[in-house]
């Protein structure tokens, strides 16, 4: 994914005319993650407390993905992003994270009590984002 697609492109087109600013998908994602924060935190705690995994991962998408379980459906909630819950173990099992890269991933994995680990999937690709839970909750 090009940075212009993520952040909006303010440059000119091939004719030299200013391009219309594209709205970044990250703007709507941030809005939805803030809205979903309490529910996501609840699921993360449940995943850890039930011993399923110490490393919950949430998948944010606007299409269909075949990993994790839907916990927040954009169609039902009138939002722009669907969130699915998964784990590091499932990401390794499905080959998204290579087993040899597990330790490297864990070094960058932020405290799940403070941050949601979100695997953001867009048509151009996917990447991990750590989004902090709102303070005072």
TrEMBL record:
- List all Polar residues biased stretches: 1-14
Q: What is this protein called?
A: Uncharacterized protein
Region annotated Disordered sits at 1-23
């Amino acid at each position: 994914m090009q940075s212009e697609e993520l952040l909006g492109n303010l440059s000119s087109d091939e004719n030299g005319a200013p391009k219309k600013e594209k709205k970044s998908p990250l703007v709507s994602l941030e809005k939805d993650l803030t809205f979903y924060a309490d529910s996501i935190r609840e699921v993360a705690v449940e995943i850890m407390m039930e011993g399923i995994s110490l490393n919950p991962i949430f998948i944010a998408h606007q299409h269909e993905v075949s990993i994790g379980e839907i916990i927040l459906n954009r169609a039902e909630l009138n939002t722009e992003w669907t969130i699915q819950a998964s784990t590091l173990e499932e990401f390794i099992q499905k080959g998204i994270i290579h087993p040899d890269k597990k330790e490297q991933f864990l070094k960058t994995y932020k405290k799940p009590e403070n941050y949601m680990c979100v695997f953001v999937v867009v048509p151009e690709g996917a990447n991990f984002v750590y989004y902090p839970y709102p303070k005072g909750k």
